Amino acid sequence: MSDQLDRNLALELVRVTEGAALASARWMGRGDKEEADQAAVNAMRLLLGQVNIDGTVIIGEGEKDHAPMLYNGERIGRAVQANGQPDAAVQSVDIAVDPIDGTRLLSLGLPNALAVIAIADRGAMFAPEHLVYMEKIAVGPAARGMIHLDATVEENLKALARAKKRDVSDLTAVILDRPRNEKYVEAVRACGARLKLITDGDVAAGISTALEGTGVDILLGIGGSPEGVITAAALKCLGGDMQSKLWARDDADRAYARQAGYDLNKVLSLNDLVDSDNVFFAATGVTDGEMLKGVHYSSDGATTESLVMRSRSGTIRRIFASHRIHKLMSFSQVEYGA
User: In the predicted model, is pLDDT for residue 327 greater than 80?
Assistant: First the structure.
């Protein structure tokens, strides 16, 4: 990547996720997922367009949401000229975004909604295209290289327990609460491990496996493939590990996989998902969660808490910011609300 990208990108990305969080947080608990998501998309698209990159959205809003902005394949960044051609002096990058990981959580006022973005070298990010689900396993640094998706849940939990020098009964697995994941739920319970079922937000859950103090040790089960790539980018920065397989919902998915050349039996490693050692990741809390506090309002503005990381340096920052909304509204095009 260019020297300019090395110097400036990480904190610019935090500005993008902060903007998405501030714009969408007004919709907390109001029961409207679409409006909340649109507010985050609008803010993220506008602010990302001001970052000096030539970016291509690899993981965006497109496949499941049919969004007109931040769609898969969209070119974005200050270095993309008005005619759509890139500035040759600026390095091209892959972009993965989830303006709100957990739109349902936000709409119901529930914990752990995040605004997230990741950037890596051009060509580094895996593009699942129309295959929007994948089977996943994710752990923190202590168990890196010690888990395997083709192993049983019991084998993986025992390997994790050895790595962490704990009993299996001390471990906590997090699983997306869906009928398709019932076999993982039953296997974890049979092993005597603790279990945390979540309704949404498996990016936050995956990242939590690699952060101290979250109480989460392993992510298991079938969730979104776009979220899987974003989680892989974060785990690259945190030193964790992840494996996945694309998961077909039906015969149409299986036919698409054959036609597009995707192997549904292939175990995808962390490097298969994000093949770069120069990954930038930022997340800002929208609602309060175990990992980050959400947006909090006061008489003179709002506060945010963000996590910003870079894989090459291994630097992990927590940024607590105070925002004067009325000042931002005086010059920003982002709709932060009254």
Answer: no
d(CA 18, CA 21): 5
Output the CA torsion 206→305→95→107 (10° steps).
70
Residue 302 near residue 22, CB atoms below 8 Å: yes
Integer angstrom CA distances of residue 324 from 99, 304, 319, 337: 22, 11, 16, 12
Judge whether residue 84 has pLDDT over 90.
no
Q: What is the pLDDT of residues 286-306, one digit of tens each?
A: 999 989 999 999 988 999 999
Tokens of 192: 């005597």
- Distance, in Å, from the CA atom of 313 to the CA atom of 279, rounded to the nearest integer, reads 10
3-class DSSP assignment, residue 145: coil
pTM of the model: 0.91
Q: Which pLDDT tens digit goes with each residue over 142-163?
A: 999 999 999 999 999 999 999 9
What are the φ and ψ backbone dihedral angles of 145, each rounded to 5 degrees?
A: 80, 5
d(CA 231, CA 117): 10
In Å, what is the CA distance from 46 to each residue of 81, 179, 180, 211? 15, 38, 37, 30
What pLDDT is recorded for position 316?
Answer: 94
